[in-house]
UniProtKB/TrEMBL annotation:
UniProt keyword terms in alphabetical order: Calcium, Calcium channel, Calcium transport, Endosome, Glycoprotein, Ion channel, Ion transport, Lysosome, Membrane, Repeat, Transmembrane, Transmembrane helix, Transport, Voltage-gated channel
Family matches, as Pfam families: Ion_trans (PF00520)
Family according to the record: Belongs to the calcium channel alpha-1 subunit (TC 1.A.1.11) family. Two pore calcium channel subfamily.
Ion transport domain sequence ranges: 55-278, 395-657
Transmembrane residue ranges: 45-63, 92-110, 122-143, 180-202, 253-275, 395-417, 429-448, 469-488, 508-531, 543-563, 605-626, 632-654
Catalyzed reactions per annotation: Ca(2+)(in) = Ca(2+)(out); Na(+)(in) = Na(+)(out)
Subcellular location: Late endosome membrane; Lysosome membrane
Protein name: Two pore channel protein 2
Topology with respect to the bilayer: Multi-pass membrane protein
Gene it is expressed from: Tpcn2_2
GO molecular function: calcium channel activity; intracellularly phosphatidylinositol-3,5-bisphosphate-gated monatomic cation channel activity; ligand-gated sodium channel activity; voltage-gated channel activity
A single GO cellular-component term on record: monoatomic ion channel complex
Classification via InterPro entries: Ion_trans_dom, TPC2, Volt_channel_dom_sf
GO BP terms in the entry: calcium-mediated signaling; endocytosis involved in viral entry into host cell
Length: 709
């Protein structure tokens, strides 16, 4: 009936608008049952359950045999780790697999069977589940005694397929591979030529005493290749040239030439090529996201214009304001946007909306989220007004920065003077006294600012919240110190009492004071620009962090399986025989744990990308614990993590920084307004709006939506 059709159109419009808000594709089933299932699937509860399941199945690697639940990772000294009984982790895995089966079934049904056969990700999802379940059955049939478990390597795929941004990133990387391959080939030619030169230059001679370079680094072709490949990462520099340099200084020219050509030219050329190919990645991605949003809004307009209450007009379609208000009541969207659209509808004098008016209403979604600070309190007293002017002035903030700098300098002076003193010789009176003085100043500053600005306005600034929180913590620590150890006095060195010693308390206070000095960053424009660029990068480019986790995880699990039992722990004979795992396993799993616990600290991880793995390779090869073919594993790791991934990250960092720098140079500073930027908003001014013809053509290609016109 007419009522049922109208309800269907309303529900379709609700889902299409929600698709537009989340930048989702609208190519899914649109009948009433499918729409209910679709909204249920994308509800917060379902998506939270799916994310939790992915986290659990990835975290199983830390408790499965070999378990990582030990205090130390040193295989010589750690006690035997707790290994879960057969069936425990397998039961958790099965529950996770069941969630994934439901996930892929719902996704496959919603897109429809025709679209399903075109979707490579869904096909790969099903294949991964089949292989994983088969491997799970094999594990149980062997009573969990088998060492090679293929499903462990496949686990990162579940994380990969759940993120549309990670899929786009992989697609962009795939398009960049041909150009990267040409430079990698050039690197291989460079390496091969210098390997031959090295074997000729450092050939074996009659004098065995002069052959140290040949014995250690260039004995044969594989050794020569390995030595120069490691030199390309600078991990064995200058060790590799010391024997030859000791013999004749002129030999250093060979190594300098190799390093200059390889590191300064070819590696940086690779970075330039990747940046050139990849610099439009974000722009293309955001352009396609904008098209999805416009398409979703237009689809909502088209279905609402099909309502029976809408007036028939052969020339142009219209949507009634009442119908849109009914839809907006049920749409899950940001309250700010919803209120802004509702206000626009109330101020609109017309009862019908054209396609252009409808689209313009939803441009509110594209606008910056503006945070306006509450007003300052209005005092009647002239004295209070003068106080408000003085302590609300920016110069008062600058004075606080000068005091914070003086605090840092005083701490540095005390640390330098006490660096070589024994704890028994150290007098903490001076440090305790100056800490007490500065903390009292910070407390006074906070109170005066709250008085001048009002509590709500004071808390509306992130820098004030940061200052206030640290000031309160510092006050609590100082009061606790005085309660336990008394007030500072000459020779203030009481014995250890309570949870922390006096020196621990003082150190904790000093660390917080040093941390508080970061308050100066917003006052230094260039430094603030760099910091906000990095924060935006971490916040908005989670896809790269996800791919980093995927790469670490896959290589760590592969290393566990390849190098099992390669190293027998020595040094802790009291523990007895252990089912040991290799240095590769220890190193890689340590790296993985660092990655998972410190995802944002990319610079620290980059330091480990090359050196730890290359040293691991050299050590294992030197003591003949792994075969020569194991080099492929380590070289593949170096190429993927260090050469490709790091350069991709550098390219994105440059693109984000340059774009933000250009925007900051041309943007007026607004003192009372803070703009919350996202990736979608960064490129808003350079995006192209899709045309009417493009939108309608795409809508008519919808596999499940039949439009009236």
């Amino acid at each position: 009936g007419i009522g049922a059709d109208n309800d269907l159109y309303i529900n379709q419009a609700i889902v299409f608008i929600e698709d537009a808000i989340q930048y989702r594709s609208i190519n899914h089933r649109v009948d009433s049952k499918s729409l209910w299932l679709y909204r249920w699937y994308y509800s917060r509860t379902c998506q939270w359950i799916l994310s939790l399941t992915i986290t659990i199945i990835l975290a199983l690697a830390f408790i499965e045999k070999p378990s990582s639940l030990t205090v130390t990772s040193d295989v010589r000294y750690r006690l035997p780790a707790w290994n879960p009984p057969c069936g425990l982790t397998e039961s958790i895995e099965l529950l996770c697999f069941l969630v994934f089966v439901v996930d892929v079934s719902v996704k496959s049904y919603l897109v429809g069977w025709e679209e399903f056969w075109k979707n490579k990700w869904l096909m790969a999802y099903i294949l991964t589940l089949i292989v994983s379940l088969t491997d799970w059955i094999v594990s149980l049939s062997f009573f969990c005694a088998e060492n090679v478990r293929i499903r462990r390597i496949l686990r990162p795929f579940f994380l990969l397929q759940n993120s549309s941004m990670m899929k786009k990133t992989l697609k962009s990387i795939n398009s960049t591979l041909p150009e990267m391959a040409s430079v990698v080939l050039l690197l291989a030619v460079h390496l091969s030529l210098f390997t031959m030169f090295a074997m000729l230059l450092f050939a074996r001679t009659k004098d065995g005493q002069q052959d140290k370079e040949w014995v250690v680094y260039f004995r044969n072709l594989p050794d020569s290749l390995t030595s120069l490949l490691v030199l390309l990462t600078t991990a064995n520099n200058p060790d590799v040239m010391i024997p030859a340099y000791s013999k004749n200084r002129a030999y250093s020219m060979f190594f300098i030439l190799f390093t200059v050509l390889g590191n300064l030219f070819l590696m940086n050329l690779l970075t330039a090529i990747i940046y050139n190919q990849f610099r439009g990645y974000l722009l293309k991605s955001v352009q396609s996201s904008l098209f999805r949003r416009r398409l979703g809004i237009r689809a909502a307009f088209e279905v609402l214009s099909s309502l029976k209450e809408a007036p028939a007009n052969a020339q142009q379609s219209y949507v009634s304001v009442g119908a849109l208000q009914q839809v907006l009541q049920k749409v899950a969207m940001d309250s700010r946007c919803k209120q802004a659209i509702m206000r626009s509808l109330k101020t609109c004098s017309c009862d019908q909306l054209s396609a252009a008016q409808f689209q313009k209403l939803f441009e509110e979604l594209d606008k910056d989220a503006v945070k306006q600070h509450p007003p300052s309190p209005e005092y009647q007293s002239r004295f209070m007004q003068k106080m408000q002017f003085a302590f609300g002035h920016p110069y008062f903030g600058y004075l606080g920065n000068v005091v914070a700098l003086a605090n840092i300098v005083s701490i540095c002076v005390v640390l330098v003077l006490d660096a070589d003193k024994q704890p028994s010789e150290r007098d903490d009176f001076f440090l305790g006294a100056i800490n007490c003085f500065f903390i009292l100043y910070y407390l006074l500053e906070m109170v005066l600012k709250i008085l001048a600005m009002g509590l709500k306005r004071y808390l509306s600034y992130p820098s004030n919240r940061f200052d206030g929180l640290l000031t309160v913590i510092l006050m609590v620590l100082e009061i606790a110190t005085f309660a336990v150890y008394g007030f500072p006095h000459p020779g203030w060195r009481p014995e250890f009492m309570g949870l922390l010693s006096l020196w621990d308390m003082v150190r904790l206070v000093n660390m917080l004071i040093v941390f508080r000095f970061l308050r100066i960053i917003p006052n230094m424009k260039f430094m603030a620009l760099v910091v906000t660029t990095l924060l935006d990068l971490v916040k908005n480019l989670r896809a790269f962090a996800g791919i980093l986790v995927v790469v670490f995880y896959a290589f760590a699990i592969t290393g566990i399986m390849l190098f099992e039992g390669a190293v027998v722990p020595m040094g802790n004979t009291s523990v007895g025989p252990m089912n040991s795992w290799s240095i590769g396993r220890t190193t890689l799993m340590t790296l993985l744990s660092k990655c998972l616990s410190r995802k944002a600290d990319f610079v620290t991880l980059f330091g480990h990308f090359e050196t730890e793995i290359i040293y691991c390779l050299l050590y294992l090869l030197s003591i003949n614990l792994i075969c020569r073919w194991a080099k492929i594993y380590f070289v593949a790791w170096w190429l993927i993590s260090s050469v490709i991934w790091v350069n991709l990250f550098v390219a994105l960092l440059l693109e984000n920084f340059i774009h933000k720098w250009d925007r900051r140079c041309h943007r007026e500073s607004l003192s009372d307004i803070e703009y919350q930027r996202t990736v979608e908003l960064m490129f808003r001014d350079v995006l192209e709006e899709p045309t009417e013809e493009e939108l309608m053509e795409k809508l008519h290609q919808h596999p499940h939506l039949q439009l009236c016109r």
